[in-house]
Specification:
This protein has two domains: 242 residues, 3-Layer(aba) Sandwich (QueA-like), CATH 3.40.1780.10; 78 residues, Thrombin, subunit H (Beta Barrel). β1 and β2 form a beta hairpin. The chain is globular. The strands form three sheets. A nine-stranded mixed sheet has the order 2-1-17-16-14-3-12-13-15. The chain has a six-stranded antiparallel β-barrel with strand order 5-6-7-10-9-8. With 340 residues, the chain is α/β, with parallel strands linked by helices. The protein starts with 26 loop residues before the first strand and ends with a strand.
Length: 340
């Protein structure tokens, strides 16, 4: 299939710029895989579509305030850095812009407690920087860093916690697993009381999730790599759910990619920790996932391709057209879709 097969027209005013309050008051499109039927409800009615013995799989990664602005010591030039991957305690791979002002050997000051030197420039243009920090690094980062919001969000975020899920725990993402932003703690407690299992995986989302597909033939696209972990407890819950005839419903494409990566590599869901660059597009045979909760994704993105693989290409594109016609809110702070 070609990249253009996954294009749809989206009016700019449908791109959500701010999160809705309360979290679970966003709209929810229900979407049947078998016939493509679409329904419309509110996210806090999710439990009406789930049953005891089902398992929701949530990604408990926590977003780093990874966007920091440094002043170059020798010239005073300001450069934006976005932290991507921790190489060692104080050494990070990052994006720098403008890059020409962040050459090897240059030094930057971010605050009284944080400075850094550029120690290498990688072939793809990313920088390796080594920090000097007065205090615990992540505590200092919380004070000076900003959330690395996607490029299509122009509004300033008033509360950084609104770009975190209420169950975020494992620090390491450069972007939020946004399907989980709709849940409240009270809603999770209600679902659990109904007999629905809540299981957690960790996949640290990279900025590559926003990287556009540039090749015409989608099979030529090279996916970015992300790190994931599955605990023994989560593996047990998922395996028992499948054994007992329950449904495994992934909250977000990151949870989906975690489970499908593990099942593809190991032939089963088990305790594991690994990197994945799995690319799921139409023709893929799902090994674990029975349902998906997800937001509405960018045209021609790998994420809409994953949804199309699960729900069917024609069904997906028709559902997206209806979402536009019904003026759903799109992307990270937008509304949600439940596919069963």
């Amino acid at each position: 299939m070609r990249k253009s097969d996954f294009f749809y027209h989206l009016p700019e005013e449908l791109i959500a710029q701010t999160p809705i309050e309360p979290r679970d008051s966003s709209r929810l499109m229900t979407f049947a895989r078998s016939g493509g039927e679409v329904g419309h409800t509110v996210f806090n009615q999710l439990d009406n579509f789930l049953k005891a013995g089902d398992t929701l799989v949530l990604n408990n990664t926590r977003v780093l305030p990874a966007r920091i602005f440094g002043t170059r010591r020798d010239t005073g030039a300001v450069v934006e850095f976005v932290l991507l991957k921790q190489k060692s305690t104080l050494v990070w791979e990052c994006i720098a812009g403008p890059g020409k002002k962040a050459k090897t050997g240059t030094s930057f000051v971010f605050s009284d407690d944080l400075s850094a030197n550029v120690i290498d420039v990688l072939p793809d243009g990313n920088r390796i920087i080594e920090f000097t920090c007065n205090g615990e690094f992540f505590s200092v980062l919380e004070k000076v860093g900003q959330m690395p919001l996607p490029h299509y969000i122009k509004e300033k975020l008033q509360n950084n916690e609104r770009y975190q899920t209420v169950y975020s725990k494992e620090l390491g993402s450069a972007a939020a697993p946004t399907a989980g932003l709709h849940f409240t703690k009270e809603m999770l407690e209600r679902l659990s009381a109904k007999g629905i299992n809540i299981a957690y995986v960790t996949l640290h989302v990279g900025l590559g999730t926003f990287r556009p597909v540039k090749v015409d033939e989608i099979t030529d696209h090279k996916m970015h790599s992300e790190h994931y972990c599955i605990s023994e407890e989560t593996a047990k819950v998922i395996n028992e759910t499948k054994k007992n005839g329950g449904r495994v419903i992934c909250v977000g494409t990151t949870s989906c990619r975690t489970l499908e990566s593990a099942a593809t590599k190991f032939g089963e869901i088990k305790e594991c920790s690994d990197d994945t660059d799995i690319f799921i597009y139409p023709g893929y045979e799902f090994k674990v996932m029975d349902g998906l909760i997800t937001n509405f994704h960018l045209p021609e993105s790998t994420l809409i391709m994953l949804v199309s693989a699960f729900a069917g290409y024609e069904n997906t594109m028709n559902a997206y057209k209806k979402a536009v016609d019904e003026k759903y809110r799109f992307f990270s702070f937008g509304d949600a879709m439940l596919i069963l």
